[in-house]
Amino acid sequence: MTDQERPLDRGAPFSGGVGGGRAAEPDRRVRRTRRILREALVSLILDKGYERVTVQDVLDRADVGRSTFYAHHRDKDALLVSWFDDMSEDLRREFDAMAPGAQVEPSGPAAVLFQHAHQHRDMYRALCGRHGGTLVFRHLHGLVADLMRGHLRPHLAAAGSDLPVEVVAEFYTSAALGLLTWWVDEDFRYEPTRLARMYQRLAATGVIGALDHGDEVRPHP
Amino acid sequence: MTDQERPLDRGAPFSGGVGGGRAAEPDRRVRRTRRILREALVSLILDKGYERVTVQDVLDRADVGRSTFYAHHRDKDALLVSWFDDMSEDLRREFDAMAPGAQVEPSGPAAVLFQHAHQHRDMYRALCGRHGGTLVFRHLHGLVADLMRGHLRPHLAAAGSDLPVEVVAEFYTSAALGLLTWWVDEDFRYEPTRLARMYQRLAATGVIGALDHGDEVRPHP
DNA sequence: CGACAACCGAACGTTGTGTTCATTGCCGTA
DNA sequence: TACGGCAATGAACACAACGTTCGGTTGTCG
To answer: What is the pLDDT of residues A72-86, one digit of tens each?
Structure first.
């Protein structure tokens, strides 16, 4: 964690709040600009890959002045991160909505992730795929790993396992994200639930499960 | 696979071979330069992280002229890749040396990887850790995934599993590399064999194994 | 409508890149 | 030991992108 995400003067000082306006809605122009910048960035990532996108590119595609960009974001990375923050909030909400069910396997979090990715395909293409950058992917990894640890800790503790939580969490987090990345690059060939089921099998029973014929579980012809 | 690694004029035309020189050994100066460049790069990565290392930095630390650098490598990435290629050759050899044993679980490849990483700690720190770049890591991922596929395919085929090999391979590859990365960042706290054993357990039996008390296997107090 | 915040765009200094070209000094040969 | 060819070398150059600044313009909110 470096010194990322200095907020600059994020959110216009005091303006919005006409009726019962949500907490300090920024000026309409601000929203517009930010939206346009994000869209431009995402579409550019899909075109050329994150690394090759230059601030100038974003400026051109968004048709926004140079100084305007820097008024909102410290640099290219900050723009991406701000976008990711919104996304991750969304994702976290979905996790929380599911949490009480308290599945035993790590497939709960993974399934939610796959579902979420499938809903926001373009964004995940820009995030994880061939084209994505390292930065946000690490953020995502950290996020999922956190959730995974929280999810697994009680189970491991209850069973008195001698495996450190971090190791187990890291294992399943990486497996999930790796599968996700692969899936994205394969252009979402499988249904999200199908992928989730495969993950679930591998996670729950390991190679042994993988070597089983899928018969007993097979839910359709 | 893009157009990486144009050899330029790798290997001086014809010079070496004074005594009984090995097959077309490049000029002594060339070897020296290349070695110095690599060392400089690696040490710089460990200092600042790959992304932040600039060609200029390498030039300064290696005390080498600009054109010299570009005579040997197309850019920063190419330098790193050339280094990685050597490493990976080494790694692949170790895999092959082990292959005939034909373990059932994916822990074979993983164990070799962990061992190799432990032997070349500094290099893996520069490769996988917090500081590593995306590029070589993807290469490594590809390499391991390949091996994993080759390793798993026969077993899955024999058992008539309905899981696609790519999925299973991706799962275990990502898990192994994720664990590796984590381990590197934790400064190799565990013994490589210990890590391998944990991986092995998770890979073989899944969460079920993780929830077991480690008693039956525990080889020491 | 009027104040003010946000946007614009051009210009500038800086840093890093990749290439060019004359020079240096190894290398093998006589 | 002396010599000529040739690869390696480093200074200088042109270029691309970055991030900042500042006076002028335009949209927004009250």
So the answer is: 999 999 999 999 999
